[in-house]
Amino acid sequence: MSLPFLLEIGTEEIPDWMIPHALETLRDLFERLAIPHESVRLDATPRRLVLRAEGLPERLADTEERILGPAKSAPAQAVAGFARKHGVTPQDLSIESTPKGEYYSFLKKVEGRHSRDILSESLPGLILQIYFPKTMFWTVKGGPRFIRPIRWLVALLGNDIVPFELAGVRSGALTSGHRRLGSREIAVTTADYEHRLRDHYVILSAAERRKKISDELAGVRVKPDAALLETLVYLTEYPTPITGSFDAPFLELPQEVLITVMRHHQKYFSVEDADGKLAAQFVAVMNIPGDPEGFVRRGNERVLRARFNDARFFWETDQKKKLADRKQDLAHITLPKLGSYLEKAGRTVALVKELGGDAHAVRAAELAKCDLTTELVKEFTELQGVVGGLYARAQGEPEPVWEAIYDHYKPESMDDSIPRHLTGQIVALADKIDTLRGCFRVGLIPTGSSDPFALRRAAQGVVKILVEGGIPAPLRTFLGGDIKLEEFVLDRIRYYFKDIRGFRYDEINAVLASGWDNLVDVEERLTAIQAVRPTENFEPLAASFKRIRNILRQAQFAGGGSIDATLFEAGPEVDLYHDFERVRKAAAAQAYQPALETIASLRPKVDLFFDKVLVNAPDPRIRENRLTLLSTLLAEFSTIADFSEIVTNS
Amino acid sequence: MQSFQDIIFRLKQYWAERGCIIQEPYDVEVGAGTMCPETFLRVLGPQPYRVAYVQPSRRPADGRYGDNPNRLFKHSQLQVILKPSPDDVIEQYLSSLEAIGIDLRKHDIKFEEDNWEAPTLGAWGIGWQVMLDGLEITQFTYFQQCGGIALDVVPAELTYGLERLTAFLQVRDSVYDIEWTKGFTYRDVRYLDELQYSVYNFEMADIPTLWKLFELHEAEAARLLAAYDPKSPDKARFPLLPAYDQVLKCSNLFNTLDARGTISVSERQAVIQRVRKLAVGVAEAWNDQQQPVAQEVAQ
Q1: Cis before residue B230, ω within 30 degrees of 0?
Q2: Are B218 and B274 in contact (CB under 8 A)?
Q3: What is the average pLDDT value for chain A, to the nearest integer?
Q4: Of B113, B152, B264, which is closest to A141 when you measure between CB atoms?
Q5: C-beta neighbour count of B222 within 10 angstroms
Q6: Which of A120, A232, B7, B20 is most buried (CB neighbours < 10 A)?
Q7: A287 to B110: CB separation less than 8 angstroms, yes or no
Q8: What percent of chain B has pLDDT over 70?
Q9: Closest-CA distance of chain B to residue A587, Å
Q10: pLDDT of amino acid B265
Q11: What is the pTM of this model?
Q12: Rounded to an integer, what distance in angstroms lies between the CA atom of residue B224 and that of residue A28?
């Protein structure tokens, strides 16, 4: 018989951002029980994690296990003893041949266990294994740990309760509805579970909650914000959006500030007018079906008004002291082991100059961190940089300067854009390179998932800015010869070109092996390789290069000598030499892609050489000369990429 | 309309009916209700405890001379400790809001992740900020650690922001306009506190004097802690409560100095550690004091 299974872990409110991952681990843990089933479905609200599966057997299939007994040569007594132990007679035993010899054996029938028993036994441990980044205990010290207290458990297999107990809670068939609109105890079956919840103002499916919010927002010009939508979906059991408004004069404050207050502090969507400009409206998402009397809307409007008033107060207070007059205050802001921000500003200015930054870039680097002393940034730390840029603009700094300050934390992620112009790019580079060098120097190196100074993001930013900004700066020189830092940045370079740009890993290895000081050049070489790779000669040539490398390695050939053309034999050897000379001259004058094509045209001659010529000639002078030819060829054509890194089928 | 004090009366009554001792505010200046011995010391050890009290809480850095409608140097917290936390603790909390007239079927309540931490107390917990129509009205915490000690029994701590809650219920945009009781606004009662403490904290407090006071209180706490003897048969009479008052004094002086911006970031960390060390010392000694003296020593 095929049975449906329902598990609901009823909890107090789980942090929204942890829920999707928790469901994935719940799925994996369930699959690991290896109970056959036709389908699994996972759902969650802030107060429940739910796994439903269809088609579980009442009992698992019987299995057979072959148990080896005494050797065939064993005395009859031992054989009888073995048979007796398993409740059979020696006649029931058979003889099994194994690599070690022949043995008496017995086919034991193992009765399939009841699914309910397996579940009942495994669920308590399984639930506690669901992964959460931070857990708590809520009974006594040493008690069970979970993300938040578990308050009820529904576990049904078909019509039966799967009995177990966890943290003093017994599993049953009673769920719980919306905190104020539903009942506290609702009897459910596997069939009516989702409907019963809906009757009690819980929409179980996240997709449905998402759709409810989106549908009810139709007609409102909401600034799209997928991450905020996801937060709200997992922060509510019965979401309903409402639109509120604020006083138009607040629109005189910078948009960035208004949006941050709405988005980060109040979890509101912002609204645009027909021209795409910020409107004096917002959308909040409630956890109840309606607000007919306007209580919720007015409450949220008042909170927002107070927040905006605060922001205005900070904005006006901060204007009383110019950014430029705040430089000395940076001496008081220090980071453990890394010194003050005043010192950092000094180093950043020096780096900006080394990177060839102009006077605007130098000015921006001087002022970039001054906003850390403002009230507005103390209140809204996520606006660092942006606020500095806005103040610099208000205080009459030239456009390239204020824009560079505004942008200098960019890119904040791989999806974020780089600073909008070269001045900002140089300042952002200098800031990040200084952070990387400083942290690595004092040993603040990221390990595993711990990266408190966001150094991966900084290094990723450096790579992205250099490549996408087309800045041919010598990166390795700027890393100051720190081997660990070089490896760290190389990892980020590989990640960028592979995962973000889609180059193949062997192409990346080939190109990086020929140098990575200039990332603009790296990108050009990669693009050339990618273009030439599908042509008929390229991969075979790469395979030949690998062969050359192996020959040289086996011969332990150090190279260094010069080619003696008089020692070449007529035929394939001289032909290869002449073609090599031709290709060398041609490729040197060409851009990467045609140069690669030219090099690839060498292939027939290389093939013929390996076909007809014995490198290990008996005459040591000839042998030496042949190895010199090959090593020269390899060195000469490895400046674009080390072809032997290319993985080929041949 | 319910006045500020009506709301306080009703909440106290509500929690009294649920078995809480109703305490009066602690008489040493604190930054939060958590710091009072009724919370800080009572959450330690296995003994059950239930208490509720209103605690005026001083935050020197938040003073705004009485000008800002939402920010106060001294605000009033209703602090509730339920140890152990009952299974229906959230239900009880929501009903307390209904007891002061909030119809939760018509308002939007959300529990947003917010894990509370007090580094100077070596204390932290897991919980939420409770949002009512977008306004944070309560901090709800399951204490995990206090005075650096993992707790034997997990208490629930509810901290209601009484001014905000009242402004919400009375529909006032400014805290100063809320009605304390008929004929008196919050401004009438508290404005001078806000103005004068802002002037003192930001302009007139003598920094060397404050540092001197800090060091005196620190030394007195340290002296007492050094004298505590866990093996003494008389240990129950040892003055740990007075020692803890000295720690509270240090904490408030630190907050005042911090508000002046005279403590650099690295120095700040060091001072926090100094206060924390004392708080942890008191907590450990207190935990020990609750245990009977070990047999072999007593005999």
Answers
A1: no
A2: yes
A3: 92
A4: B152
A5: 17
A6: A232
A7: yes
A8: 97
A9: 59
A10: 60
A11: 0.81
A12: 55
Q: Return the minimum-mean-pLDDT range out of A158-172, A478-492, A582-596, B2-16.
A: A582-596
Give the separation between CA B105 and CA B94, rounded to whole angstroms: 11
Q: How confident is the model at residue A650 (pLDDT cuts 50, 70, 90)?
A: low
Report the alpha-carbon distance of residue A191 to residue A54 in Å, rounded: 11
Nearest to B104 among A13, A149, A180 (CB): A180
Q: Write the single-letter amino acid at A357.
A: G
Contact check, Cβ <8 Å, B266/A180: no
Tokens of B82: 């339920």
Chain B residues touching residue A236 (CB < 8 angstroms): 110
Q: Does B135 touch chain A (CB under 8 A)?
A: yes
How many Å apart are CA B217 and CA A366, to the nearest integer? 42
How far apart CA A404 and CA A368 sit, in angstroms, is 8
Is the predicted pLDDT of residue A490 greater than 70, yes or no? Answer: yes
| CB B219 within 8 Å of CB B15 | no
Instruction: With residue B273 as reference, give the H or E element that holds it.
Output: helix B265-289
Residues of B in contact with A300 (CB under 8 A): 133-134
Nearest to A254 by CA among A397, A404, A380, A410: A380
Average pLDDT of every residue of chain B: 94
> What one-character DSSP code corresponds to residue A289?
S
In degrees and rounded to multiples of 5, residue A160 shows phi and psi of -100, 145
- Whether the ipTM is more than 0.90: the answer is yes
Strands A160-161, A150-157: pairing kind: antiparallel
Point out the residue among A12, A16, A136 whose CB comes nearest to the CB of B90: A12
SS (H, E, C) A192-244: CHHHHHHHCCCCCCHHHHHHHHHHHCCCCCECCCHHHHHHHHCCCCCCEEEEE
Each residue of B5-59: pLDDT tens digit? 999 999 999 999 999 999 999 999 999 999 999 999 999 999 999 999 999 999 9
- Alpha carbons within 13 A on the beta-carbon side of A298: 12
Please report residues of B whose CB lies closer than 8 A to that of A286. 108
| Chain B residues touching residue A298 (CB < 8 angstroms) | 133, 171
